[in-house]
Design brief:
Layout: E1 13-19, H1 27-40, E2 41-51, H2 55-58, H3 64-71, E3 74-79, E4 93-98
Parallel strand pairs: 1-2
Antiparallel strand pairs: 2-4, 3-4
Length: 107
């Protein structure tokens, strides 16, 4: 399938995981993939995107703050801690997308 056009219902997944996905896509394709992942996350859902290099993530569309605004999700980038065993952690960076829960209107 194509991560840019997943045949999955809107807001239907609580967790989405991927590894080494973004490095195979061009800049616009990366943004399309992240937008699609954000679309299928249900409110309160989390996506973990593992990459060995932060460049595809940061270049996807201007960094975490801009991506957060464009995707409508909280975006954070985590780097492997200094001194962590590289034999245990194959990927160096994890991009985390968190879709905030919908606000509940008071009645």
């Amino acid at each position: 399938g194509d991560v840019r056009h997943m045949p999955i219902a809107d807001e239907s997944r609580g967790i989405v995981c991927s590894a080494y996905l973004l490095l195979h896509l061009s800049g616009n394709q990366r943004f399309q993939a992240l937008r699609e992942i954000a679309r299928v996350l249900r409110p309160g859902g989390v996506a973990l995107i593992h990459e060995e290099d932060d460049a595809p993530i940061l270049k996807a569309n201007g960094g975490d703050r801009i991506l957060s605004r464009q995707l409508g999700v909280e975006v954070s980038i985590h780097e492997l801690p200094e001194g962590a065993d590289p034999d245990v952690y194959l990927e160096k960076y994890v991009l985390v997308l968190r879709k905030p829960p919908h606000s509940i209107a008071k009645q």
